[in-house]
Amino acid sequence: MMMSRRPINPSRRLADGRAASLDASIRSKTRSSPYLTIGLVIVGAFLLIGYFYRDTGTFGSIKGISRVEGDFSCAVEVQKTIPFLKKAYGDSMHKVLHVGPDTCSVVARLLEEEDTQAWGIEPYDIEDAGHFCKKLVHKGIVRVADIKFPLPYRAKSFSLVIVSDALDYLSPRYLNRTLPELARVSSDGLVVFTGYPRHHKAKVADKSRFGGLAKLRSSTWWVRFFVQTSLEENEVAIKKFELAALKKSYVPSCQIFHLRSYH
């Protein structure tokens, strides 16, 4: 007795077709997954390289690694004035010490100059500093030191000492100790960058970082204090600096004082 063939259910055929299509799609994705993995690895590598070099200035400006936030930052101003400082001090720019927060960024900029050696002192902790800054500390180019105490250098160790964003946070009691120390370790001059009282406004965030609010003083106050500590203004350097700045129409955002070293 012959058996009759059962009719094929059209819905089942459609379902089987969909299953086959889905299976083919899965196999296709499985075959392409190595390419997807390679692509993700390449993208991840670029992200890691960008993160590593973000502090070196290679893929970002030096200003970008500044740790001083807000309007009050003379460290960036120091970098802008390096060409004028070279005109004012000439050969005295061959061995420079910068003192102040963001010293890593300033030292990095100074090291770009031909025939210039640079060191730095960071008065505050560098826990939030980038890889490049910590590398400078590891090499001994930058030191972390409390500037209210004697500096870890011999007399006249540097031809020029530049300080920014540091003295504004010191009371006169500590300034009486720190300024003579800065002059002691310099041989050809001391350049002081301080904030303008009318241009800068210290923020509450600065208090937690530096232990107190910046005391932004007038130029008259500073000049009087320099006289009290037996520090004389360097008239020759002042004139050369102002002439170089005038040619470039440079208007400073910070007060700049040029002082003679102790002899």
TrEMBL record:
<keyword id="KW-1133">Transmembrane helix</keyword>
<dbReference type="GO" id="GO:0045488">
    <property type="term" value="P:pectin metabolic process"/>
</dbReference>
<dbReference type="GO" id="GO:0008168">
    <property type="term" value="F:methyltransferase activity"/>
</dbReference>
<dbReference type="InterPro" id="IPR029063">
    <property type="entry name" value="SAM-dependent_MTases_sf"/>
</dbReference>
<dbReference type="InterPro" id="IPR044689">
    <property type="entry name" value="CGR2/3"/>
</dbReference>
<keyword id="KW-0812">Transmembrane</keyword>
<keyword id="KW-0472">Membrane</keyword>
<feature type="transmembrane region" description="Helical">
    <location>
        <begin position="35"/>
        <end position="53"/>
    </location>
</feature>
<protein>
    <submittedName>
        <fullName>Uncharacterized protein At3g49720-like</fullName>
    </submittedName>
</protein>
